[in-house]
Structure formats: C-alpha cells, structure tokens
Amino acid sequence: MHDIVSLSAAGRLQDVFAVQRRAWAEQGALSVRRRDEALEALAVALVRRADELARAVAQDFGHRSIHETKLADLYPVIAGLRHARKHFRRWMKPQRRPIRMMFQPASGRIRYQPLGIVGIISPWNYPVQLALSPLAGALAAGNRIMIKPSELTPCTSALLEQVIGEVFDESEAAVVQGGADVAQAFARLPFDHLFFTGSTAVGKEVMKAAAENLVPVTLELGGKSPAILAPDYPLGKAAERIAVGKLFNAGQTCIAPDYVLVPRRHEAAFVSAFRDAAARLYPSLAANPDYTAIVSERHAERLRRLVADARARGAAVHEINPAGESLDPAGRRIAPAVLTGVPSDALAMQEEIFGPVLPVIAYDRVEEAIRFVRDRPHPLALYVFSHDGEFVSRVLEQTSSGGVAVNETLLHCVQEELPFGGVGPSGMGAYHGEAGFRTFSHARSVFHQARINGAGMTRPPYGGRMERLLSFLLR
Ligand code: NAD
Questions:
Q1: b vs e for 111-144, b when ≥16 Cβ sit within 10 Å of the residue's Cβ?
Q2: pLDDT band at 8 (very low <50, low <70, confident <90, very high)
Q3: Is residue 466 exposed (0-12), middle (13-18) or buried (19+ Cβ within 10 Å)?
Q4: 233 & 180 share domain
Q5: Distances from the Cα of 140 to the Cαs of 148, 162, 215, 225, 428, in angstroms?
Q6: Cα separation of 167 and 47, whole Å?
Q7: I want to staple 130 with a disulfide (CB 3.0 to 4.6 A). Which of 87, 122, 238, 273 is the partner?
Q8: Is residue 220 annotated as a catalytic residue, yes or no?
Q9: Across the chain, what does the average pLDDT equal?
Q10: Are residues 130 and 213 located together in one domain of the fold?
C-alpha cells in the first residue's frame, strides 16, 4: 500500500512538473496582471480560511494556540502578499547602470526576469508561513511554483493544497504532498531554483541533490541563536522578552533564543525573573489554550532526553510549572525549564533545542560572551540586550548571524524591508519583501551599444593607436 501511495505521489510530482515546464515553454512568465490578481486572491483566500487553517495547524500539533497561528502563520503571509502586490512593479523596473567613459555612449541596464519553475520545501513548525512566504516573492517575480510542505502537518498540508488549487491553475502553482521519499524526489527535479526551509542536516542533502542538476538553492536553516544580556539592561524586561521569544509556539521557532549569556552576578536573578515572566505569560500549562504542544512524540522525547542529559552532566534544572500541574505525556505539553551550569558537551549545548528549554550561560567579561558565540557556528539570529551603544556595536562587529534584534526577540523576522536568511551553517540566501523578489529573479545585464561608438579603437590590427590607448589605460 505504502509503495502504491509513494508511486502515485511521485507520479503526480512528475506530472505537475511537466505541466509547469510546458506552460513555461509556451507562455513564459506569469503576466503582471496575473501576478497582481493572484497575490490578492491568495491573501483573500487566507483571510477567509484563517479559522480553518488555524484549526488544521492545532490538529497537527495536538494543540497549537489559535492566536499564535493567526499572528505568526497567517498575518506575515497576508502582509507579505499585499506588500509584494503594492511594490512588485517598482521592483521589476529595469535599473540603469553607468557605463565607463571609454565605452560611452553605450548604455547599461539590469532587467529582472523570473527564473522559471521554483520548488519550495517547507518544514512543520510554521506550516503556512514557511510554505507561502517564499511563494509571495516567487509569484511577484513571475515564476511558476511547486510546494512540498511537511509530512508532519498533514491536515495543514491538505488544506494548503486546496487553497492553492482554488487560487491557481496547476500550471502556475501547486502543492505536492508526501513524506521523505517524495521530498527526496522533489529535490531531484530540475527546477530553476530550489528554496528549502528546514534543518541543517537535510539542507545538506537538498544541496547535494540540487547540485546534480546545477539547481541554485536558497537554504533557510536552523542553529543555536544566542541572546546576550549586558550588565546595564533591566533584567526583568530582558527576561520577559526572552521568555516571549522562547515560549512562543513552545520554543518550536527557528529564531527562538536558544540559550542566553548572562553576567555571572546576575545569573540567579535572571533565572527568577525568567520564571516570573513565564508564569505571567502562561499561569497554567495543561489546558492553557495559549500554550502550544510539541509537534510529535519523537520531538517531545528528544526534549525530555535533552533535559535528562543536562541533569546527568551536573546542570541544575529549574522547571517552571506555575500551577503545579501534572502534564499528561500524551498531550505533549512540556513545562518550560531553565538550565544552569550546563557543560558545553551537554546535548542542550550541542544541538538546536527547538523547545521551551533555556540554558543560561554565565559570563564574567563581555569578551567571554562574544568568544562563546564566535567559537560556535554562525547562528540564524542573535539577540543583544543593552542600552549601551558601545556594548551593542561591539557585539555586532565581532559576531555574525543571519539577523539581529536589539532589545527584542523575533520581531526582525516580520519586517518586510529587512531581508531574512542565515549565514554559513544557518543558511544561504534571503527573502521577505524585495529580497524575496530578487532571490527569485535573474538580474540580467544588458549592454546596449550606441549607433556611433568608439569600439573600433580596440580592434586589430593593433598599432600605435592601441599603444597610446594602453599606455593611458595602464598608467
Ligand atoms: P526537516 O529538515 O526535517 O524537514 C523539512 C522539510 O524537508 C520537510 O518538508 C521534509 O519532508 C523535507 N525533507 C526531509 N528529508 C528530505 C530530503 N532528503 N530531501 C529533501 N527534502 C527533505 O526540518 P523540520 O524538522 O521540518 O523543521 C525544523 C528545522 O527547520 C529546524 O532546524 C529549524 O531551525 C529549521 N527552520 C528554519 C527556518 C528558517 O527560516 N531558517 C524556519 C523554520 C524552521
């Protein structure tokens, strides 16, 4: 049965790709009018289906806050589609570029052209946003699009397929569902661009598969995003903002603060401020509609193992369960926990946490905190809390990360004018707003020779005139 299902999914993959290839060959890019229409039609469909989508995501997670789905999965996509609709004509405009004097009066321009057929592979943690935000840029640029959403969120993926099917003809955009086997076959298709969001390990596989066809990739990966707290910053405020970033979606956010570096003398006070903040945000856990469950038993078990491993290696585990409830493991809600005294070789400091567990690392001097971040792979996000401009500049100058928020968590990700992406092991390439349009466009250089020009000066037979020109150029 499984083989039959896989075979038919693989067959559909090939069929949709062939339909889009043919449409690209026969009709080329989506017209400006069609882009405009489809960007709005999709936004309207998402507004109309917001409740249904939020329910589907909740069903996939076991429990996911309806408000968080609307805020983080739907709003950024709808805002992104409308932003693209408003601006894509300007983004499309050819840009005039200056030409060196010796080649004048020729002119130079860059024209932005769609790449063709774009593949999007998305993960489960924000199953709507991470499938459709890349689509906004790809569509605004005029491409045809295939999406392979995560198999861990089957209800949402099925609904996404319906919504996309209502707004688009299959030759324009389509969703193909399936498990890891379909994902692998998807990554092997000869797309014109492949956009992947997911783990670093799978990102490597995707890049390998794409390399076979020389398909360019954008990789939006994960990693351990640090928060650095300076001695001058109000502890309570920092703890609250870090708690919001850490506990939103129960920590299953690629840019959640993974661990926090705190001045040693403030360590105990930070733990208690974080406990207070978490308790204010989530006074109870077991039946609190705002507190999201862990997506699968495998991930819940991974988090329990991570905490047990830290404890076994001598870390202190400060569990936060304000109402003192017993949490049924079947519900997959995991109590937030702060870890102190975590050694670097503990799992919690080796792998991306992706859950409501926060290691606190004490530092004595700012150089130590910076060194801690520099010694590790470039993260996707970095958070710094300080009102001291010099402290902030020092951290920004001496570290690297995909993006940064100063005195805040998460919010850099929902700014259309700020490109979003990783660096090194946290990813390559960027999107959102204009950056998405550029990612999915080819910047084609056009040199336009003038009717009367001096190009003859540089042609053979070379002689004295060329000698004089060269001695001028090489002076
Ligand atoms: P994942 O890498 O396991 O899966 C992501 C997608 O890849 C799924 O659709 C899956 O079907 C597909 N896939 C699996 N094996 C594949 C293969 N061999 N070839 C091609 N595709 C394959 O990631 P996940 O568990 O769904 O998501 C969590 C990870 O994603 C975390 O590491 C997180 O940090 C990262 N993430 C990054 C961002 C970002 O914007 N940078 C956003 C969200 C999540």
A1: ebebbbbbbbbbbbbbbbbbbbbbbbbbbbbbbb
A2: confident
A3: middle
A4: no
A5: 19, 21, 20, 31, 21
A6: 13
A7: 122
A8: yes
A9: 96
A10: yes
Are both 68 and 207 inside the same structural domain? Answer: yes
Domain that holds residue 139: 2-221+426-444
pLDDT tens-digit readout, 156-187:
999 999 999 999 999 999 999 999 999 999 99
Point out the catalytic residue in the list 68, 254, 352, 416. 254
Predicted pLDDT at 116: 98
* Residue 390 annotated as catalytic: no
Active-site annotation holder among 220, 240, 416, 434: 220
- Residues 259, 337 within the same domain: yes
With a pLDDT cut of 70, the percent of the chain lying above it is 99
Answer yes or no: is 400 within a domain: yes
Taking the centre of ligand 1 as the mean of its atom positions, its distance from the CA of residue 236, in whole angstroms, is 34
272 contacts: CB under 8 Å, gap ≥ 6: none
Q: What pLDDT digit, counting tens, does each position of 45-100 carry?
A: 999 999 999 999 999 999 999 999 999 999 999 999 999 999 999 999 999 999 99
